Amino acid sequence: MSRRTLLRATALGLVTTPALAACADDGPGLVRARPSLTHGVAVGDPRNDGALIWARSDKPATLIVETAATEKFSDVKRFTGPLLTPATDGTGRVRVNGLPAGELVHYRVRLDGEDGASSETVTGVFRTAPTAPADIRLQWSGDVAGQGFGINPDLGGMKVFATMAARDPHLFLHSGDCIYADNALKESVTLPDGRIWKNITAEAKNAPAETLDQFRGNYAYNLTDDNYRRFNAAVAQIVQWDDHETTNNWYPGGTVAADKGYTERSMDTLAARSWQAFHEWMPLEPSEAVDGRLYRKIAYGPLLDVFVLDMRAYKDANGANTAPQGSVLGAAQTTWLIDGLRESKATWKIVAADLPLGVIVPDGKTSFEGPANAAPGAPSGRETEIAQVLSAIKANKVADVVWLTADVHYTAAHHYSPARAAFTDFDEFWEFVSGPLNAGAFGPNNLDPTFGPEAVFVHAPPAPNTSPLDAQYQHFGEVRIDGRSGELTVDLCDATGKVLFSKQLAPARK
């Protein structure tokens, strides 16, 4: 069919517009198959002149991104990304740059196939980081599709992402457990009270992930949710990982318990496959991380620096965690964090931790997941690295440091003070916890007294593994920084957007 014949047939309604767009020349032959953007688009790690734009193609195609100041796209800047191929599961990203600071950017993404056929266009927006003091709205949470609770069609999918998007955040800090690679999904789950939770299922979610394709499939599954895809297109993300991207409670050198149903039990082997899928499917660039993998600083104008931690890849075994020394950050990351906080000129320094500091998170009866080890007294085990960081913050007179985390599937506000602590060489600070987004809700956990935490506010379900049907126990947090006063406000919210707790913090310096 020639292009002229195709145009005539289209006018008569005999073929669809996509077929028209796929026809690239007047020569004879079949209409060319167009590449397709299979899982929407996403924005990550913004700077004052741009951000990373992520997409996935179903066949080899070049990623093309165009940006403009308005949705009319009358003044377009064009960026050519990589050729997306099966080697990266069809995923890829391109950093768009040279854009004005502190502005709303409209972008559109398409794929150009190797034979000239182009995909449909998907649009989105993001904000570049400001270079002058300005209002900032940052959200954070974690834990998506865990404990057997996936995308429920009866609820309209993962509606919490629509709730968050409606508040128009500039940034979203995904604090880990972006997937639950170790949690399979069934078509339905009967809850203790007799209610039925229903799941959309997928082949990759039929069993715990072991192969690279299974890990990839877990990310693909979450992005079949309309709410999640729309959120990704409109909110710049800062992503980190925790344990369920690999397997529950993983650590380097660990072995999966024999009763967990794994054929591959080496946590290192599983983590290597998980790392590849994570970097393929999330909007971050490994080369921009300090270690070529994850931990990094995101500078967001004069009022905010975000320090993104990796508390998994450098931690020691989940043993008693009471040795004279321990590791949860590793020496290099500990030094990087201390130096970065000392050198930061931003008013507020947010430390994005994928594990809470003082919450006791058991791994069995005698082991522990995070820094806290339930041992009163001087820091021991992994607490020694946290004590090193806290002491350096005090010694270097670093003001206005706030810690954000998820992991424990409830929301809380913790105030740490040397007046209550066994270890006193630090300045008081706040840690805020939020989650889950679409997973079983738990908690609360006990607190370790070493750094003197006080649970000022806690919101947790009455029973463990409460389903997302009870939206009041699904949580996200929101940080608002006032561009004029520099005041920082933290709101802890449920999945309906109801504010459960609010804390205002004035900056020590203006």
Largest sheet: 9 strands, mixed
Beta-strand portion reads 25-35%
CATH class of the largest domain: Alpha Beta
Q: Mean pLDDT, rounded to whole units?
A: 93
Q: Could you give me the name of the CATH homologous superfamily of the largest domain? A: Alkaline phosphatase D (PhoD)
Tell me what you see in this structure.
The protein has three domains: 1-32, no CATH class; 33-127, Immunoglobulin-like; 136-505, Alkaline phosphatase D (PhoD) (Purple Acid Phosphatase, chain A, domain 2), CATH 3.60.21.70. Helix content is 16%, strand content 27%. The strands form five sheets. The chain has a nine-stranded mixed β-sheet. Strands 13-14-15-18-20-19-21 form a seven-stranded mixed β-sheet, with helices on one face. It has 510 residues and is of the alpha+beta class. It has helices spanning 3-11, 17-22, 160-165, 212-222, 226-234, 267-281, 331-343, 383-395, and strands at residues 37-47, 50-57, 61-68, 77-84, 91-96, 104-113, 122-127, 136-141, 171-174, 188-190, 196-198, 236-239, 296-299, 304-308, 348-352, 362-363, 367-368, 401-405, 411-416, 429-433, 453-459, 475-481, 488-494, 499-505. It is built from eight helices and 24 strands. Residues 39-128 form the Phospholipase D N-terminal domain. Keywords: Signal. Residues 1-21 form the signal peptide.
In short:
This protein is of the alpha+beta class and about 500 residues long. It has helices at about 5-10, 15-20, 160-165, 210-220, 225-235, 265-280, 330-345, 385-395; strands spanning about 35-45, 50-55, 60-70, 75-85, 90-95, 105-115, 120-125, 135-140, 170-175, 190, 195-200, 235-240, 295-300, 305-310, 350, 360-365, 365-370, 400-405, 410-415, 430-435, 455-460, 475-480, 490-495, 500-505. β13 and β14 form a beta hairpin.
